[in-house]
Amino acid sequence: MFVGRRPELALLKRRIDHIARTGTGLAVAVRGRRQVGKSRLVQELCDRSGLPYLYFTAVKGAPVTESTAQFLTALAESDLPNDHGLLPTTPPTGGWGDMLRVLAGTLPDQPCIVVLDELPWLAEQDETFDGQLQVVWDRLLSRRPVLLLLLGSDLHMMQRFTAYDRPFYGRADNFVLGPLNLAETASTTALTGSDAIDAHLITGGLPGILLRWPGGSPADDYLRDEIADPASPVFTVPEQSLASELPNPDVARRVVEAVGGDARAFPSIASTAGSRGGPVSSGTLSPLLRQLTDDKHLLAVDQPLSTSSGKPALYRVADSNLRLFLAILRDVYNLTQRGRPDAGYALFQKRWTSWRGRAVEPLIRRSLEQATITGDLPWPGVQTVGGWWNRQFNPEIDLVGADRAPVASQIHFCGSLKWLGTPFDLHDLRHLRDGAAQVPGFDSTHSGLIAVSRSGFDLPADAVDVAWGPDDVVSAWPS
């Protein structure tokens, strides 16, 4: 089953239309985490287009001779070559450079698609691969009506492949494929409201997990069954993701695990990720955090949003599925492996509510940003939604809408998020008003108030400018 991805397919289809119109080639570098659906999306594009195509997936660790032989076999078995009789019976001895020239010589005159999946593994096999691809692209492939799709799960290596100091710089469009959005998760799982939001937090919007979700099954029922299965994707997908990004039990891995365990600020991360020798030093931790956020995108950093610069920055695991694994499911997995799934499920239930209350914050903020795009909020000047806190975390404002980040020129609204089993009431409203008054830039005469609640509201009708429930959060996203 293929779900969602209409915007992504439309963007790739536009490139096919350009190729058909001009008769020249385009290259697109598609990157995204494992299980996010890169290969499935591209296969769907190939199937829907009706064009001749070649889909080649590299094998990690394979020598160049074996890899080019596999490529030649895939080419011969595809419908891409204009004349199969022109193909050599054995791969050329010149490695990938000559193999790519063979490819260029067999392309048809009509638009076609060539997919190189797991591109970083090809670059590992031959350090000159990107240079060879650049030469063949400039001289041969770009002059043919071909869409060249370069796929990879190693985000850092894919970024480096098209960086300004690398041979293929400026030759490929960069296409980042993220998880399915909240509305697509709701559609895939046949869930609505808070149940759909629970499913999105658990799966991270990853198709590799979502497609195993029984339609209409709420999170409790789904997880009770999955926790009993040691091979369940709720365990294996985040574990494999962590192992592929950070294969060694080094300081970087301890930092990610510390953040996943809810160490959010720099000092607590340094302490939790430290060893017997003490906390991780600032000189080590600062560049590690930059690498994990900017290069590997394993972590995300949030800064207090107001009209004044503020500290401290707070870190979180970017993918909610991996975040859940590190905080809860890894310990549950250990119990399941020991034959105690009931104890694992009880542990999940004990930790789930408090974890969910924190993990839903970035999803609600992105949903509010989506609503400003469609004009569903009464503040058209909002460009970003974040939170605000001081050094004492008293108060800590869940939602701040502003014209820019992290230092805004105008605060349009402040808001509170209550994701518990009780309604948002007058006590919560007083707490919000008192806290919002301390946010630099908040002006009660011009700035509004917003409340988001999982369990409804016990407020006068005009107590806040916007009151959102779970259905509003889901409907903010395009399906």
Sum up the structure in keywords.
479 residues, alpha/beta, Rossmann fold
Structure explained in plain terms:
With 479 residues, this protein is α/β, with parallel strands linked by helices. It has 3 domains: 6-176, P-loop containing nucleotide triphosphate hydrolases (Rossmann fold, 3-Layer(aba) Sandwich), CATH 3.40.50.300; 217-302 and 318-357, no CATH class; 361-475. The chain is built from 19 helices and 14 strands. It has helices spanning 6-22, 38-49, 64-77, 96-106, 119-125, 129-139, 155-161, 182-189, 193-203, 207-210, 219-227, 233-245, 251-260, 266-272, 282-295, 320-337, 341-373, 426-436, 470-475, and strands at residues 26-31, 53-57, 112-117, 146-152, 172-176, 299-302, 314-317, 384-389, 396-402, 411-418, 424-425, 448-453, 457-458, 466-468. The strands form 4 sheets. Strands 2-3-4-1-5 form a 5-stranded parallel sheet, with helices on both faces. Strands 8-9-10-12-14 form a 5-stranded mixed sheet, sandwiched between helices. Strand 9 (396-402) and strand 10 form a beta hairpin. The radius of gyration is 25 Å and the shape is globular. The chain starts with 5 loop residues before the first helix and ends with a helix.
> What shape does the CA trace take?
globular
Mean pLDDT: 94
Helix content: 40-55%
Main sheet: which strands, in order across?
Answer: 2-3-4-1-5
Question: SS-based structural class?
Answer: alpha/beta
What is the helix tally? 19
Task: Determine the CATH topology of the largest domain.
Answer: Rossmann fold
CATH-defined architecture of the largest domain: 3-Layer(aba) Sandwich
Largest sheet: 5 strands, parallel
What count of domains describes the coordinates?
A: 3
CA distance, first residue to last residue = 16 Å
Query: Which superfamily, in CATH terms, is the homologous superfamily of the largest domain?
Result: P-loop containing nucleotide triphosphate hydrolases
CATH domain class name of the largest domain: Alpha Beta
Return residue spans where pLDDT drops below 50 for at least 5 consecutive residues.
none
Strand segment tally = 14
What would you call the quaternary organization? single chain
What share of the residues does DSSP label as strand, in percent?
Answer: 5-15%
